[in-house]
Amino acid sequence: MGELKVRFLPEGGFDKNGAFIEYEDDAPNGDEKEYQRQSYLTLDLACNDLHVGTHFSVLNETEEQPERTASRAIRAKGVVQPARWGRFSLSRMGERQNIHEVDVRIRENKHGEAAMMSGLFIEGDLDIESEDSFFLQIEMHSDRFAPLLKELAAPGAKLRLSVDVERFRNFYAEWSPSISEGRVIKFLKSKRDVENADEIPEDFWRTPEFQRELVSNLDDPPVRISVGRPLQPLSLAPSTAEDEEDDCDKDVGAPLSSFQPMPAPVPNPIPALEELSKRLRRGAFWISLWLALIFAILLLQA
Fold it and tell me: Is 49 left (phi over 0), alpha (psi -120 to 50) or beta?
């Protein structure tokens, strides 16, 4: 199956202000999908295969040169995550292939910040296969790149990006009343790919000034970067021997442990003394009686 033909409809799209269609036969049959400028085309990218590179420039110094410093860059593979209904995919206008990955590169830049998303298409040759891909290039100031790199170095860190694709040039999609419906987002490489390119009015294309405004809104940036990582439990500092001695001094009078045996109760001595007194009085009575009998017998024998 070869490439599809691309045609512009001057009154196509939901707002009747222009759209592109793809078709295979000699002429459109009227039921083709119409790809127009569509707001709220947000891709959520979960990045994997992260690499950090440091780059140095080397040249032949024939005369005094200004000081050169190294620059760093983060490379990753961004995978398009499912939307609430379906999943977004990227495709070149006139191609059937749908792509769910974006090559991400975040570069350290000392002069300013910028973001650009586009498509990269390699034409096939005798020993080279045709290849379609998409990339997101981010330039980040050094004082913000360093904290990002530090966060990504933490154990379990995950890099995620949210990209408003409609802010960048030449991305189109079918109209939908929902911002969370996954659709195919088409990228127009060049207006030369459109059969009737001469019918596209000049005011259909964005002016450079308007394009700069779309990607330069401080309150609504086109790209948002986030780093998530699991929280680590706080560990208590180990106690020293001196701390344990201080704790022992403070714990004087503390309740006994439940595992320590309790002392036996002391019996009450008063009942035992009363019983002993009764026995002594009874014994004295019988002794007195026996002595009286013996004395009486001796008197009778005299």
Answer: left
Using only C-alpha atoms, the chain has a radius of gyration, in whole angstroms, of: 46
The pTM of the full predicted model, rounded to 2 decimals, is: 0.72
Structure-model confidence comparison of residues 9 and 60, the more confident one = 9
Q: Is the pLDDT of residue 184 over 70?
A: yes
Contact in structure between 63 and 157 (CB atoms under 8 Å): no
- The DSSP-derived string for 198-247 is GGS-GGGSPPHHHHHHHT--TTS-SEEEEEE-PPPPPPPPPPPHHHHHHH
- 198-218: per-residue pLDDT in tens? 999 999 999 999 899 999 988
Residues paired with residue 83 on neighbouring β-strands, in sequence order: none
CA distances to 101, 104, 162, 183 from 84, in Å: 18, 23, 15, 11
161 neighbors 126 (Cβ within 8 angstroms): no
| 245, 251, 252, 258, 266 from 255: Cα distances, Å | 18, 9, 9, 9, 21
The answer to whether 21 and 5 are in contact (CB under 8 A) is no
Residue 285 sits at φ, ψ, to 5 deg, of -65, -45
| 8 A C-beta contact, residue 47 and residue 26 | no
Out of 47-61, 226-240, 274-288, give the one with best mean pLDDT. 47-61
Position 94 scores a pLDDT of 94
Rounded-to-integer distance, Cα 163 and Cα 120, Å? 18
Domains in the chain: boundaries: 5-54+70-228
pLDDT per residue as tens digits for the range 3-57: 899 999 999 999 999 999 999 988 898 899 999 999 999 999 999 999 999 988 8
At residue 39's C-alpha, the angle toward residues 33 and 44, to 5°, is 95
Instruction: Give exposure, 70-104, as e/b (b: 16+ Cβ within 10 Å).
Output: ebbbbebebebeebeeeebbbbbbbbeeebbebeb
- What are the two backbone dihedrals, phi and then psi, of residue 191, each rounded to the nearest 5 degrees? -70, -15
